[in-house]
Each structure stands twice: as C-alpha cells, then as structure tokens.
Amino acid sequence: MAEQQHRRAGGAVVAAVLAAGAAGCSSGSATLDDAHNADPVGTLRRAADTLVDTGSSKARTSMEMATGGTRVTIRGEGVYDYRERLGRLKVLLPQDPAGTSGHRPITELLAPGALFMKNRGAGVPADKWVRVDTAGLSDGNLVTGGATDPLAAAEVLRGTRTATYVGTSELAGTEVRHYRGTADLAAAAKGASGANKGVLAAAAKGFATAAVPFDVYLDEQGRIRKIRHRFSFVNRQQGTVAVASTTLLYDFGVAADVRLPAARDIYAGEIADG
Fold it and tell me: Rounded distance, CA 74 to CA 217, Å?
C-alpha cells in the first residue's frame, strides 16, 4: 500500500501541472576539433562518461508540456554530482490561469533509483520528504518529477541511433558543437550505468515511443552544455502529452554536497491525489 501511495505521489508534479493547465542555434564555421565530428554517434554515446569524469556541475532545467492546445512549463535549478549520482533541484511550478501559484517550490533530491520530494503538499507534513522508486515509474522519472535527472538525460544518448553534426554556435559565452539525432531508450538502458538501467528500461516501455529525438551541444572538452529531448506519453485524462525537456549544465567542478534524508524524515502516511 505504501508503495502505491509513493507512486501516486511521484506523479504529483506533472499531474498538478496538467490539471492546472486543463533554441534555435545558428551554425557556423567548425572552429572546434573536427575529429570529434567524424563520428557523431560515437561521440554522443560517450558524453555521459565525460560528465562522470568531470565530477559535478550546476544545472538548470525546463520542462514544457503540451496537450489539448494548452502549454505549460516547469523550471528547476540546482547542482549535480555525476560520480555519486546525486543531485538537488528546486523545482518551480507554473502560475495558474489567474496569474498566481498555489504551490511553494518543491525541493527534489535525485539519487540512484529514487526521487525525494519536499514541499510536496497534498497532506504531506512540511518537514517530511516523499520517496519514490523511479524504476517503478512508467517514465523512469524522465518526466514525472517535472525535471529530468541530468545524468539520466546524458545516458539517453548511450542509445543514439542516428546523429548529425549541425555546426558550431555560442552558448553562454562558450563555443559549442551542435548535434541533432534520435536515441532509442531500450538501447540506452542496456548501456546505462547502475540504477539508470532500470530507469531507462521503464521509460522505454512506458512512453508512447522508445525513440527520442534530441538536440545536444558539447563544448571542446566533450561536456554536455545543453541537451533537449522530446518525449511523449499517454495520460488517461489528457490523452497524448508532448514533452520537451531541456537541461543546461554549467560551472563544472562546483561543490555539490547532496545529503539524502534520514529514514525518520520520510513520510509514509496517506498521500492525497492532485
């Protein structure tokens, strides 16, 4: 029963937004090392390993959802430790049609196989966390939490099937290489590390299609600076929901001290819907 309650809670961020609601780049001359562009598929499949070698970074996330003519956006910001597979994001829900928001920012802790949420609302005490088993979610938490785990976003690229080098551009003052392609979630799951195997395998089965179109921008060290995925899933109330998830990574090497809550701080009571 507790497991069912936590799964229902895990959909809270996306469910709340759906209920409330119902970059382009110029290509330039290839001034970066063209050897990286000779094998775009191989380059992108290694991108997650490059992040792990880098250690950590700050992250900004944006998740746009469109259904039935309505479009809403959830934004997040925080830090991520790629070696420990731990992250902390503050997620902001969009305003309601009246221009106000009835939700406080949700603090999310990302961990191997788990999502912890604070300020979840809907009957959860303010000092308690809700824990969700991400491998048990139909999307593996690529969408449910309202922000895609930065390492999971990178590991989607392990399933890259096709990729094209678009050209160079500038992103936040850094020259980057722009690639466009399609990844297969089932293939990504096979090559993923640790708990992300289960996460991506769940997403491969739960999304409307396992094929994920993407745009990704790498700096001269091969680090992901920006990645945008396009997912789609079927919601029983709203029908097919199109999702564009964008993750920006910067300030590599920043301190990322993420501490998971103690067992006594995790809520195990009844969780209301909505």
Answer: 22
Distances (CA, A) of 207 to 182, 199, 242: 15, 12, 10
Q: What angle do helix axes 12-21 and 2-10 make, rounded to 10 degrees?
A: 50
Q: What is the pLDDT of residues 170-208, one digit of tens each?
A: 999 999 999 999 999 999 999 998 888 999 999 999 898
CA distance 105 to 95: 12
- The lowest-confidence range among 9-23, 76-90, 144-158, 237-251 is 9-23
Please identify which residue in the block is written with the tokens 């746009």: 64
Q: How many CB atoms lie within 10 A of CB 1?
A: 7
How is residue 174 written in tokens?
């850094």
pTM of structure:
0.84
CA 127 to chain centre: 25
Single-letter residue type at 82: Y
- Is the dihedral angle over the CA atoms 218, 222, 228, 230 positive or is it negative? positive
The residue with tokens 């009246």 is: 98
Say if residues 191 and 48 touch (Cβ distance below 8 Å): no
Scanning the structure block, which residue is given the tokens 């297969």?
184
Backbone angles phi, psi at 228, to 5 degrees: -130, 120
What domains can you pick out in the chain, each with its CATH number? 2-253 (2.50.20.20)
Alpha-carbon gap, residue 37 to 39, rounded angstroms: 5
Beta bridge partners of 102: none
Sorted by sequence, the CB contacts under 8 Å of residue 259 that are 6+ apart come out as none
Helix (H, G, I), strand (E, B) or coil at 236: coil
How far apart are the C-alpha atoms of 241 and 263, rounded to whole Å? 35
